[in-house]
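As a next step, we paired sequence with structure tokens, yielding the entry below.
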Amino acid sequence: MSMLSACTVKCNEVAGSTDTEISWFSSLSVSCHGRIVKVPEGPLIRVEETEVVIPCNVSQYGGPNEQNFDWEFSKNLGQDSKFVHILSTWDPWFMSPEYQDRVNRGEIMLRRKSNSAVEFVIGNIRPTDQGIYRCTTPSTDSVVQGNYNDVVEVKVIADGLTVTGSNFYSSSTWNVSEGDTFQLRCSASTNSTEHTHLQVSWEFKSNHVWQEILSLTHEGKFRTGSDYSDRYISGDVRLDAMANDIYSLSLSQALPTDQGTYRCRVSEWVKGADGSWQKIQEKTADIVNLVVKPTSLEVFITRSNISLMERESLELTCNITTDRSGIFQTEITWYFNESPDGTMAEAQVLLNADHDLVISDSTFISPSHVDRSNYNLLMRDVGTEHSGYYYCQAALWVPQHNGSWHKVAEKISVPVTVEVVTLEPNYYVFLNASKTPLFAEDPTELECRIMEVQNTETNVRFTVSWYYRMPTRSDEVVEYELLATMDADWTLVLGEKSKQRAQNGEIIFSKPKVDTFRLRIQWTSETDRGEYYCVISSWSRQRNNSWIKIKDVASMPVSILWSTQDYTLTVEAVKLKPFFMAGHTFEMTCKVSSQNIKTPRYSVLITAMKSLSDRTRSNGTTRIISLNQDSVVRREDWTDQDRVDGVVLEKIQENEFRYRMYQTQISDAGLYRCEVTAWSPGGGGRWRKAVDGFSNPIQIDFQTSGPVFNVSVHSDSPTIYRGDLVNLLCIITIETTVLDPDDMSFDVSWFATRSFAMDKEPVFLASLDRKGIVIQARRNGSSDLSLERISPMEYRLRVHGCEDHDFGNHFCLVTPWVRSAAGVWQQEKEIKSKAILVTVKMDDPCVGDRKVSIQKGPLYRVRGTHITIWCNVSGYQKSEKPNFEWSTYQLSAPQREMKIISTGDSGFSYAFYSRRVESGEIYIEKIKEDSVLLHITDLKEIDAGVYECYTPNTEDVYLGTYSAKTNISVIPDTLSVTMKSQVLMQNEGDSLDLICQVLVATVQHTHISVAWYVIPEGKDRNAQKILSLSKDNILLPGPSYTERFNAGDIRLVKIGDTEYKFSITKLQHSDQGKLYWEAVEWIQDPDGTWKDIVQKQTNTVSLTIKRLGKLFLNSCFWHFIKTMYSSS
């Protein structure tokens, strides 16, 4: 007998065995290929009057997906044990009478978790419930194999856990001052008969939510709540186990956020048979309601609107009042701001004096401590830079048990205005042109002098700025341009107009005397004509050796003009030999004359305009050869390799030039010109362009009786399908003359215009020259080209594997070469064929209509998020509804198909995915009859891979495509958004700044969008968007905040790589509530759309707004009462 047969027999015997025998065979059944019923390993120790949950599941079974379960109970597992029926999922009469009442009350029940799993629940276990519990699954298998029941022992122990806390406190409410230390106590003990451990947790409730502070776990480890980690590390939060089962919680530096209710939570744990710890019961004790009283602090400066002269001393007194007594220290900080609208972040710290040391940015600033309420600031030798707004900020610090200090209150005063007045020097400025040009290129010199200076001291310095404006009509307005300006340290800053020329030495700025500044233009040009003026600035040296501008005085403008005449240039071309034939030398001269140009030099360019379009230049003109003003010759676009030295340009007189072209050919026919540029010497040995001129055209026209060539294009099938081959023939014919094929040769080029109307630029495809060399253009698609000569007068172009972009009008260009009787090859005129239209059809008639499309990948999605993939089908018979089947090929096994889910087969899923499909974690949403979405609600790393969408065929034949694939890449969640949790109290009209940090480390390129929300006060109020910054950096206000955003009262700015600042000015009472921040990470899919892949929110900030109107009415009311009392 084989091992498999033996196993089958043993499993069959189990089906007819007694209860005891079934239990004995349970160990054997694990090795059989059959059903497995499983309950937890016992004994299960549970406390009296608590809830007990025993799970039971079955696997490797046959028959229907949904299995049934029977539960029974016995006092012991001996040979004579008897099991009593309790509950069944399929037989309502299965229950024994003694359990009827408890089941009807819901104290005992069954909870189905899946088709193959249930939970047996006893809501209030009793000592009499202690014993053996058996879970049985009725057989649905075709062959009885495996085990069909499993048992577990439950032990019930008495409740020995005691938790108290109220005995330590005389009142349920405690009052502490901000910054103080307080200690809470809780008593917890157990007298359980089993070996159990206790876990003690301290919890805090504010805003109706309990949160963990610090716990001593059942394994003897400390665990902190998320909001208390930093305070635990710094030693401000401690949990101590004391004598007599006392557990104390100590908090140092009480904060306003510590106000709320505190309780002690104690749980009892026991170690199970599998070695894991299980919580068997839990109790709590409310300890105390804590009230944290904030420290009151008022700060103001005793003086206001101060005006004093430069070099005098400034003295300010900061007065503070507080309700705090005992030991504390005061920290005083003095600030300065130049603008009343400046923020504290922009303000300069003048002096900071705390309980340890004094920090100042100047030796001229010193503090003094009058008494505990008054602090003086003394600034000696003030300057105009000290004019502005002064603030005093006070902070109160209290000592802690570890010797450190804690800040309990802080406030800043209203600013005081200080104005420092200085004496301005008196002077005026005179601008004189010491040198004026008579002609272009002459020098120009301007002197700017300071005249009649009064009220100056040794610490005053003068600098200059130069300005220019071009000549204008009386009714025209033209702005002045800055040529150069001088800083207080005499650093010259050049304007755009003069920067390059000054660096080249063409413009010189200098100071020849103490009271004189000079501007010199070495070689004055036409662009320098216009008006000039200078500005003299006076600067005063400050105490820190910096300079401040105190006055600007401008001169009257001076005009720099001279009489000019327009440049003229005349060029005449002459053909020296009026009649000649191909092969002879062409020769022409160009004579140049000019007027009003000082010592001119000429540069010459020879151009030709051919009778047919020359592709060398877009306008049909070819640049042949040039000679510059320094007589340097350069060949331009002359590319005839057989006549490399066939063109010559030379200067035969100062104003005459000669052009020669040797061994002319018929292709040289056209119009030839001289393009001449006149140059005059400029500054620094450089040449300056004066004027251009063009000669009359000289025509080369050959009178020949030679052969006449024609060219045409032909194709048997210019309309083809994608992937086909197209043949195009370029056919050359000859008229009037019969030539030997050995005396003819051709250069053939193919071009295509990608349009019907020939309205686009031709695209070069390939060429075959007379020497047999083939040149092909670079191609982007998968199609290919070949070009060959198939007869002396025929050339064939083939396009293999045609694609859509091979469509267009195709033509060939032919350049004939003819050998003369003397054996010399002559190039004939280029001829162009008419175009033939090649069209590429989209579909092959052998390809079916059906097409399956899927969302283009790769799709990058974040682990743990909800993703979707779309798939649709077209071209199917509408009478049949299409079904969709989804499969995947995982990265670990890319060749193995794993079936996920189907719209037409409920048993389609592999076991690997069936549980996720049954639980709804993976499902298909039908958008339309021919379109679906695959949903994965909790993406896992193992989900990465290739996904295939398949639509089974519904026709008699297979035509088209039936599946499509895409790929998913699972990336980690790197987005984090943090903000300091706090409770804020502000007055109406105040300003509020909140800073949030967003960190992301995604490898792929992503964008971030951020938004601020507020949850208004009141029940069931929905969050309202205040302001957002989109992924495209566009600010979008919420509907209720549009008007305030447009007024600039609400702002959101990015202040660093990871930080964003949200600001509200002029707070309103409607802003009150809980504020939080939301960040969304976006990625761009291959189809160009942006997808939000992860979203995070911060904790909330509680904002309370005090109404100023109520305070005003109360003040008026008390003033009224006081007046009435005095009058009585």
Q: What stands out?
A: Helices lie at 3-15, 19-29, 100-104, 229-233, 499-503, 911-918, 1042-1046, 1108-1127. The first helix runs from residue 3 to 15.
